[in-house]
Amino acid sequence: MSEGARNHILQAMGDAAIGLLPDGSAYRRKTISRKAYTVDAVTFTDCRHVKAKE
């Protein structure tokens, strides 16, 4: 997914953790924090497309 598409989806989701689509699939937002070890600590937002449950 391109960075522009990802940003558009996250903006449309607002503060929601899950954005449901008409076909039953969804985009899920999760903030990830990783402690420092051999690299600097980082926090980022993971955005994934989740298939509809059948």
Can you describe this structure?
- The protein has 54 residues and is an alpha+beta fold.
- It has one domain.
- It is built from 1 helix and 3 strands, in the order αβββ.
- The chain has one helix spanning 3-13; strands at residues 18-20, 26-34, 42-50.
- The protein has a 3-stranded antiparallel beta sheet, covered by helices on one side.
- The protein is elongated and about 40 Å long.
- The relative contact order is 0.24.
Structure summarized in a few sentences:
With 54 residues, this protein is α+β, with helices and mostly antiparallel strands. 20% of the residues lie in helices and 39% in strands.
Helix/strand order: HEEE
Helix content: 10-25%
Report the count of strand segments. Answer: 3
Shape: elongated
Keywords:
single chain, 54 residues, alpha+beta, 3 strands
Write the layout of secondary structure elements.
Blueprint: H1 3-13, E1 18-20, E2 26-34, E3 42-50
Antiparallel strand pairs: 1-2, 2-3
